[in-house]
Amino acid sequence: MCGIVGYIGKRNAVKVLINGLQRLEYRGYDSAGLSIVENGELVTFKKKGKVAELVKLLEDRNFDSTVGIAHTRWATHGEPSDINAHPHTDNSGKISIVHNGIIENYHSLKQMLISKGYTFVSETDTEVLAVLIGYFYEKTKDLEEAVRTALSEVQGTFGIAVLSSYEPDKIIAARRGSPMIVGIGENEFIVASDAAAIIQYTRQVIYLSDNEMVTLNRESYNTKTIDNVVTNNIIHLVDFDLSKIEKGGFEHFMLKEIFEQPQTIRDSFRGRLLVEEGEARLGGLLPVLDKLREVDRIIITGCGTSWHAGLVGEYLIENLCGIPVEVEYASEFRYRNPIIRKNDIVIAISQSGETADTLAAVQEAKQKNATVLGIVNVVGSSIARETNAGVYIHAGPEIGVASTKAFTSQLVVLSLIALFLGRMRNLSKIEGIQIARAIKELPSQVEKILDKAEQIREIAREFSYSRNFLYLGRGYNFPVALEGALKLKEISYIHAEGYPSAEMKHGPIALIDENMPVVFIAPKDEIYDKVISNIEEVRSRKGRVIAVATENDERITKFAERVIYVPDTLPMLTPILTVIPLQLLAYYMAVELGCNVDQPRNLAKSVTVE
Ligand code: M6R
Predict the structure, then answer these.
(1) Strand, coil or helix: what is 16?
(2) At 73, is the pLDDT very low, low, confident or very high (cuts 50, 70, 90)?
(3) CA 263 → CA 396, 441, 449, distances in Å?
(4) Which of 14, 155, 412, 505 is the most buried (most CB within 10 A)?
């Protein structure tokens, strides 16, 4: 949700921190701030607004400090303001912290501290933690011990970094339910909530576990649990390069990520398709092979776009494998006391691997003894580590807040899982070969759709007057209708709803008049004729129809005002193609309306709070 970066070493800390904040800004962008120790004094600068505002505040000032912490915020407690921005300091003004997550018992801790004479200036839960650390420091005169004791009093989630002029050659960081990664350089360390802030300096990292803390000195580090047990961490190599988190000539990350899809789709199936055998090889599932053989029911869970991918997964797995599938919002699953039976498998889908609701759903399922698999993008993320096995989607870092390439890669991985499970059951080799061949074709087919970007841009121009949109699709493409509508509303603030096409007549049809654009996802499949009937229903009420259809489908031009063609593929793979024009349509509408595409209002890239 928010972004944290901390640096200790030999470089100019302010430069490293600002650079880190700029790379993390996609995670939260309502205020930003930093603390450094300069000439033995703790100094803090913070500002409401984007990182650029903080940069302006620091203009014309020179700093020599080589240690500091910084934060870019997405407000939870307290509105975005200079005062509520992080870092927050204790009452002595000598201890500063940045925090992601929520301190659930902040109210009682605050009352306890007020009763002892401590004071507060902000409305945040984070300031309570800062003051609590200060309180324990007065007793222990040891920063590490003060942080450790304070954290053991805290209920809730945190990723924190702490800096103090009491012990200026030190940064302490810790996590519970909110990621913290330590980059290990030569006599320098950079700690961050996201590898994007680290990889410019080093690729060697350790991932903190829940309830673990790290103390970084200039030349060494040590880790321990919050219960004071020393821990050992394996050093991992982060494998993405800088170009993957830069715009590379595109106007926005979202557009870059839409255009990356031929490659990201290829990366999702690379080394996993045995075309001539008609099989998928998924090493990540080997640890649970026996469970997969016996599975009676699959429950897929996730949020937002990942939940939409899960809905496509339901059609895929039921059709190819004959295994009953239920798809549930993670936020509902976690509090619903779900029934999990012996041979059930839960699959959690998450781009970031850090979504709080999905992580809690995984924990709930594990608590009920389910086998839990992850379909995750970010390697080493909390959900990836919490699940019993899984398949990475390998889409590379997704920076645009609106998920695009992660969705198509999630669909590729779900198709591979359906193929894998299907071949363990009744799916024939011939069908398997057909599916594998069709998957291999996808990257070049996506390229063909991307070539139509200009046509889609014109459609966006033509329809940008509209304040409402309907998206309709059936079967595999019903979830695509939901996804198209979500893309449009989150980046262009236009109200859009997705429905199964046939549901329209049960209510939404009342909305249709000459001002209502209706986007039909209508590839040539077994229910094409039914969708055409639904289009006719809209046309006869003067609705304006934009159709996404299969190449060479002339018939649809009689019914739709605008047609965007996608190449022909198997019905089960159509969502991977039909969603691309909808991503572009949402993108160009938002650009047309002058919206901030990569940082839409009120949103953040990964939702690590409830
Ligand atoms: O990182 P996750 O896939 O778990 O995130 C889930 C949703 O928060 C995410 O898909 C959200 O809906 C996006 N803004 C959609 O574009």
Answers:
(1) helix
(2) confident
(3) 10, 12, 14
(4) 412
Å from CA of 303 to ligand 1 middle: 6
Q: What is the tens place of the pLDDT at every residue in 294-310?
A: 999 999 999 999 999 99
Whole-prediction pTM: 0.83
379-383: which pairs have CB atoms within 8 A and are 24 or more residues apart? 379/238, 379/239, 380/181, 380/207, 380/236, 381/179, 381/350, 381/352, 381/353, 381/354, 382/177, 382/179, 382/210, 382/353, 382/354, 383/348, 383/350, 383/353, 383/354, 383/355, 383/358, 383/359
Q: Ligand 1: does its nearest atom lie under 6 Å from the Cβ of 409?
A: no
Model confidence over 561-588: pLDDT tens digits? 999 999 999 999 999 999 999 999 999 9
- For ligand 1, whether the C-beta of 19 sits within 6 Å is no
Q: Establish whether domains 3-239 and 246-447 are of one fold.
A: no
Q: Please state the domain extents for the chain.
A: 3-239, 246-447, 452-600
Q: How far is the CA of 115 from the centre of ligand 1 (A)?
A: 41
Q: Is 606 in the pocket of ligand 1 (CB under 6 A)?
A: yes
User: Catalytic pick from 2, 303, 321, 595?
Assistant: 2
Task: Please give the number of the atom of ligand 1 that sits closest to the Cα of 404.
Answer: 16
Ligand 1 pocket, residue 401 CB under 6 Å? yes
Query: What is the CATH topology of the domain spanning 452-600?
Result: Rossmann fold (3.40.50)
CATH 3.60.20.10 fits 3-239, yes or no: yes
Q: ∠468-310-158 over CA atoms, to 5°?
A: 90
Answer whether residue 375 shows pLDDT above 70.
yes
Written as one letter, the residue type at 254 is M
Residue 417 vs residue 508, higher pLDDT: 417
246-447 maps to which CATH number? 3.40.50.10490
What is the number of the ligand 1 atom nearest to the C-alpha of 403? 16
Total residue length of the chain: 610
Q: 403 alpha carbon to ligand 1 midpoint, in Å?
A: 6
Residue having the nearest C-alpha atom to atom 8 of ligand 1: 304
Alpha helices in 270-303 (DSSP H): 289-294
306 ligand 1 Cβ < 6 A: yes
pLDDT tens digits for 11-41? 999 999 999 999 888 777 788 999 999 999 9
448 assigned to active site: no
Q: Is 371 in the pocket of ligand 1 (CB under 6 A)?
A: no
Is residue 256 part of the annotated active site? The answer reads no
Tokens describing residue 134: 């200060």
